[in-house]
Amino acid sequence: MRTRITELLGIRYPIIQGGMQWVGRSQLVAAVSNAGGLGVLTALTQPTPESLYQEIGRTLELTDAPIAVNLTFLPTQTPPPYDEYIDAIIGQGIKIVETAGNNPVKYLGRLKEAGIKVVHKCTSVRHALSAQRAGVDVISIDGFECAGHPGEDDVPGLVLIPMAVRALSVPVVASGGIATGAGMAAAMALGAEGVNMGTRFLATMEAPIHEDIKQALLRAGETDTQLVMRSLRNTVRALRNPVTEEVVALEQQDGGCQFEDLRHLVTGVRGKAALESGRFDDAVIAAGQCVGLIDDIPTCQELIERMVQECREAFERGRSLFPEAEAVEAV
Question: How much is the pLDDT for 201?
């Protein structure tokens, strides 16, 4: 396949693995990149910049294909040492960084000076325009269907993707609700030049999470996710379970709640423990509505090859709707 995304990032297929906290580690990242997509290490999964440097090194031992690093800028009073994480990224020769969270403008200068292409994740066109003005190379636009943080505007991909494509000059990657080649074709028909998938890559052989979590994803349907922390305007979409139900109940109580009331339920440490132990009903586990489309646990190679074939077939079905065009080409 050839799009501005494949050309810009040097990958065979315009399929990007989401930078998932606790999950974007070497074995999954290398598998995605070896299969022709773009694997993405999650920087803040690593406890220190030195740990990130080492994890990049382990990944580069497993693949010669391009990889990326996700760097999420958190709205916190005591931020991680981002400059040191960037030192590790530059020191290992990484040429693609996915940024998310707060506007990356403060750090773009260093990244661009190092020859790094920056893909920025947004949940709205207005934020995408701001990131484009700041100088990012690609916008990954997250629709309301996505796992994790879908933003606060509640605009689904069918509307958000073409709006972003219309407004932006940089290439757009579609994210949220995509788990099949047909979904990929739909996103590209709307003008996207690539797709980003998180939930679908959770349900692969190489995903470094407990098998019971993968089985929970297989059992889940499209209505089995829940939005938490809406009242705090920090919405997260996750698998519905007793913990998400408790969070929502606290939010709906008279007088509402503060983040401190929820901290013990939504902490990342608790989520990490659940992913490792398989206790899927013991933490907030991010998952998108596309869980309803997931019914197997393939290797990353099998998944990407299938998606490309399904995408091709979807476009061929679309072409068959216009037989007069085929007749003209035949002449």
Answer: 98
* Side-chain-facing half-sphere of 201: CA atoms under 13 Å: 34
Other CB atoms within 10 A of residue 70 CB: 23
Q: How many CB atoms lie within 10 A of CB 309?
A: 11
| 170 and 38 within one domain | yes
Does one domain contain both 259 and 155? no
Tokens 């007793």 map to which residue? 242
> Which residues form the domain of 63?
4-208
Mean pLDDT of the chain: 96
Determine the pLDDT at residue 77: 79
Separation between Cα atoms, residue 88 and residue 112, nearest integer Å? 15
121: which 2 tokens? 């994740």
Taking 50 as the pLDDT cut, the residues of the chain under it are none
Q: Which of 208, 238, 260 is the last residue of a domain?
A: 208
CA–CA dist 229, 317 (Å, integer)? 41
Determine the Cα–Cα distance for residues 140 and 176; give it in Å rounded to an integer: 10
CB 45 within 8 A of CB 85: no
| DSSP 3-state of 102 | coil
Determine how β-strand 138-142 pairs with β-strand 117-122: parallel
Total number of domains in the chain:
2
In tens, the pLDDT along 158-167 reads: 999 999 999 9
The residues, any chain, with a CB within 8 Å of residue 109's CB and separated by 6 or more, are: none
